[in-house]
Design a protein that fits this description.
17% strand; three-stranded antiparallel beta sheet; Enolase-like, domain 1; 3 domains; Beta-Lactamase; alpha+beta; 13 helices
Length: 347
């Protein structure tokens, strides 16, 4: 089966790329005269109209009104994105802003992700999103148990990357702090450096052979791990710059803008969508209906994975109209992901 690029000849490719690039800038239907001028009239307007008609038949363009101009379809944007050269570095201004992050001494991984989200939104002028890695891919460093009351315990898990996860649990037994300290020292020595899903399996084995005093506590730890590993809603998602969509032509309709804001609030669905790209190298561009999310029609996500630990990846990116300036924004997203990865290496 032919790829999209093989379907078009050289002239069709040139005309389509110029239409997409003009539409990205002006958000208006593009006519044959405009393309002829951009091609310095090397090709007549009549010939370009004929080419545009062929592109329309192939599903790359559509005519929104009874005017001569055409608008690129999602298929055209997919073709255009796939045809872009391998991204280089962002512009000097963007590089300077991102490299400022590298000079900051961060104490917590959450600070890195929050700053990355703010910087990305400011530089790209579109909403940004940063999703923390899945807990089950992180490595255990230590645990702390705090007796809050007779039957309430605070369990604090710390990963090797410095991420902290807290949960309150109710115990069926009155467990004194000394017993909790014994369990803390035991777990820190036994499980340090292991993945959380490995710890879950090991705890089940330990329950079968260890003394009765630990049985109830083991069950509570296992329940807590089940929640941490399995509850996607609890993962942190950093979104900045949603208001930047106000004033964009595609969202002059208030109802469309409301649908977009609802989509951004649906963090669980965003996590599910972006998790598909956590292990992928390079840049991923998700166009419109490819996201299968209500409110994201006519939108795109430019995303890239970042590494927080040995086998632990998160995803960051920007969300904007399908006519985003991909040649400018793709390098920004890619460099931000590399910057965040480098920051975690130094922590």
């Amino acid at each position: 089966m032919k790829g999209l690029r093989d379907i078009l000849n050289e002239r069709e490719r040139s005309v389509l790329e110029l239409i997409v690039e003009n539409y990205i800038v002006f958000a208006e239907p593009v006519g044959s005269t405009t393309i002829a001028n951009l091609m310095k009239k090397k090709v007549s307007s009549a010939t370009i109209r004929s080419v545009m008609g062929e592109l329309e038949e192939l599903g790359f363009l559509f005519k929104p009104h009874a005017v001569a101009g055409r608008v690129p379809t999602p298929k055209a944007f997919r073709y255009y994105v796939n045809s872009l050269p391998i991204p280089g570095l962002p512009g000097k201004k963007e590089l300077k802003a991102l490299e400022t992050m590298l000079r900051i001494r961060y104490a917590y991984t959450e600070e890195v992700m929050a700053d990355a989200s703010r910087a990305l939104a400011a530089i790209a002028s579109f909403p940004s999103i940063v999703v923390e890695p899945r807990v089950d891919t992180m490595l255990f460093k230590e645990v702390e148990f705090v007796r809050m009351s007779r039957y309430t315990i605070l369990i604090v898990f710390v990963t090797t990357s410095g991420m902290v996860h807290k949960r309150f649990v109710e115990s069926n037994e009155d467990i004194d702090q000394a017993t909790l300290d014994d369990m803390k020292h035991y777990m820190n020595e036994r499980f340090s450096g292991l993945c959380f899903h490995v710890i879950k399996e090991s705890i089940i084995q330990d329950m079968d052979r260890d003394r009765r005093a630990f049985q109830d506590l083991y069950r509570k730890i296992q329940d807590t791990l089940d929640i941490l590993v399995g509850d996607e809603e609890k993962r942190e998602v950093y979104i900045e710059g949603a208001s930047k969509m106000i004033g964009i032509p595609e969202f002059s309709d208030v109802e469309k803008l409301k649908e977009l804001f609802k989509a951004l609030e649906n963090k669980e669905r965003l996590i599910q969508l972006l998790d598909q790209y956590q292990g992928n190298d390079g840049i991923n561009v998700i166009l419109g209906s490819e996201s299968d999310m209500k409110g994201m029609e006519g939108m795109s996500i430019i995303a890239s994975a970042y590494r927080i630990d040995r086998d632990s990846y998160g995803v960051l990116g920007i969300i904007g109209p399908m006519r985003m300036n991909y040649s400018r924004l793709i390098p920004i997203v890619g460099y931000t992901a590399r910057t965040v990865t480098d920051l975690f290496k130094t922590m």
